[in-house]
Amino acid sequence: MTPEVILGLIVIVPVAVLLLLRVNATLVFLSLCLGSVLVQFVGNDPDSISSWLSSAGASTALQTSDNNLKLILLLTPVVLTTIFMIKTIHGRTRMALNILPAIGVGVLGALLVVPLLPPGTSYGIIGSDIWDQILNIQNIIVGGTAIVCLIVLWLQRPKTGGGKHHKKSKH
């Protein structure tokens, strides 16, 4: 498979999954951001993670490379949020609002996952022209998606009954 096809799948598969399962992509985007924070602050100390996993009852046979461990840290919040949020988007308007955050999840996911892939795959993608184009607009992708996600979250807040005033009945 060519690097462009692999990159395309890395972007398109999450978008398709989120839209088909009607998952709130805004929450998945935030989970991806959380995973990135975990990789940055927890993933840089794989020894402490391994000892934590061992003390938590995980098998010592779980000997993963540093990048595999970082992929697990990055994607676990995303996978769990996706599972717990299946069928949380109802109606055409909300589905339409869900498209941009879903695309943001796919592209940001690619930006975060590709450097953690096995070296041959990673270098092939990073060396491609399309990767350079994505890197050139990564600030717009992340910032724009973050703003869109905030707006979508604000629009999804529960409606209160504050607009209707109850009349007191006279006895």
Describe the protein in words:
The protein has 171 residues and is mainly α. The protein has one domain. It has helices spanning 3-20, 25-41, 46-55, 66-84, 92-113, 119-126, 129-136, 138-155. 26% of the residues are buried.
Question: What attributes characterize this protein structure?
Answer:
single chain, 171 residues, mainly alpha, 8 helices
Quick recap:
The longest helix is centred in the middle third of the chain and has 22 residues, at about 90-115. α1 runs antiparallel to α5, α2 (about 25-40) packs antiparallel against α4 (about 65-85) and α5 packs antiparallel against α8.
How much β-strand is present in the residues?
A: under 5%
Query: Major sheet, described briefly?
Result: none
The helix/strand class is: mainly alpha
Total DSSP E strands = 0
Q: How helix-rich are the residues, as a percent range? A: over 70%
Distance between the termini: 79 Å
- SSE pattern, N- to C-terminal: HHHHHHHH
Arithmetic mean of pLDDT: 87
Number of helices: 8
- Whole-number radius of gyration? 20 Å
Total domains: 1
Query: What's the overall geometry?
Result: globular
Low-confidence stretches: 59-63
List the helices and strands and how they pair.
Blueprint (H helix, E strand, L loop, with lengths): L2 H18 L4 H17 L4 H10 L10 H19 L7 H22 L5 H8 L2 H8 L1 H18 L16
